[in-house]
Predict the structure.
Amino acid sequence: MPRLLLVLVIGLLAVGAAACGSDDDESSNQSGTSAGETAAPAADACSKDQLTLISPGTLTVGTDKPAFPPYFEKDDPTNGRGFESAVAYAIADELGFSKDEVKWTVVPFNSSFAPGPKKFDFDINQISITPKRAERVDFSTPYYTSPQAVLALKSTPAASATSLAELADAKLGVQVGTTSLDAVTEVIKPKTQPHVFNDSNDTVRALKTKRVDAIVTDLPTAFFLTAVEVPEAKISGQFQAPGGDDWGLVLGKNSELTACVNQALGALRDSGELQEITDKWMGDQAGAPALQ
């Protein structure tokens, strides 16, 4: 997204379009270019005293302001609450930094992946990995892949669905040409053809006017819609589907820190901690339970 929540305010990002990817038309699923292609570091190269940092002894982390939930809580990245705040501190811990050795700095979304020197060691801000962006900066391996979400008016039966099977009889709306349309037909498999709309405005309008029981979009867009565009709706749940949007940490081009950040992320994946953080902040607690 240029940053999902800001870009949607400006232009209401196409419902179901890849989050964070609208500044270039490259899908994050084509992003093998720079995400995680750095060689594994030597055994001691990632020890805290060996890291090349903006400020010695301090890990400087960038994100935009305001910082919205569920990615950050109370517009305060330093409190460790919210998905991306928790991820950042978990990575810092893996690299050997205590919480008071982490410094946050404000970085406007588009500046984070613009060419040139960086004032952060890494930036975390719902930034999709795309080949075009990877020409200018390094990306970590993905720390999150966006699932799909079902959005329904609170007053409708679809809002209380707890499984994909319960949506089989629902009138579902989706935007044409999106991964969400593929997700509906391939994963939900409704008994009737979904209602397909030309753009995001028509899709959301169909939900508001009850032409459809629910719409399907990517989860970050669903968070925005329930908070800003359609507060009378709720996220029935989320589900995994092909074509999810990969988010990566941004580092300066050819940063010496990239391999160590990837190593830290790998350790968090292997231990299950990254999944625990994701489940906590992007799942039930955020109002987006899993639909099976």
About this structure: Residues 4-34 have pLDDT under 50 and may be disordered. The chain has nine helices and twelve strands. The two ends are 27 Å apart (CA to CA).
